[in-house]
What does this fold into?
Amino acid sequence: MSKNLTPPKGEVFDAGLGGVLIDTTKDYIGVFDSGLGGITVLKALYNNFPQENFVFVADESDLPFGDKPESELLEILKNVLAFYGKIKTEDIVIACNTMSSVFITNNLKQEHGNVITIVESLVDSLEKIYNADKASIKAVGVLATVYTVGSQIYPQVIRHRGIDVPIFQVGCDKLAPALEDNDPKVWEYAKGYIEQLPDEVTHLMLACTHYNLLYDKIKEEYKKFTIVPPYERVIEVLGSKIHKTTESAENKKPITMLTTKYYPNLQKNSDRIMGDTVKWGLR
It folds into this structure.
């Protein structure tokens, strides 16, 4: 990560752009990704818990994560986790499959017990389907970054849960950058990757949060797939920790969005997804 995300001493610090201030005496929920994909997770969480203080870190300076070596990714991840540790973050959602894989394979859970990974949450959702009707799952298709596929994290976690089904993975090297850039060839790329999956696949895992932006399109065009719900388990886990009241929906808090690089498309797409709930900052 090219930008330092460590706040100076004191209860409040300036995040940089637009006079965004972070009060380090408040309790926050952190959401982290390289950029746009994590905002889809953030939106789902905010829709359910608008009364919470969310701080989203978009590491645009290191986009894409999926083509970097593990040593570099681990350094980036530790830096972000250290930042969240300094602003009194109660829970952290790693809304990135690549970084979730790094977190799991490096056994960081012992040190960071308040972290929820999108990989484990997505497998939770698959496990729920499997336990309810295992006969319906003939094979699972996983669309992911090249790094996530190479890490074999999904087959490992799925097998560890006792889910005994064939798994087919496709590394989608062009898809996340194309979605960030609003590339007109996005759907062409997506179809090319999807069609690499064998006919026996019945259930599809969108194992990169950027791909959630294509959820409706894939569901419409490929009715043969059951798409594993991407946010369901994260919402359930956070919901079990958060005390909601009847006033929660009325007591909406603005979201603080920090990025390590100003990227116009990120702000444009974020504003489209999140509306006017965001305060932007650059570190």
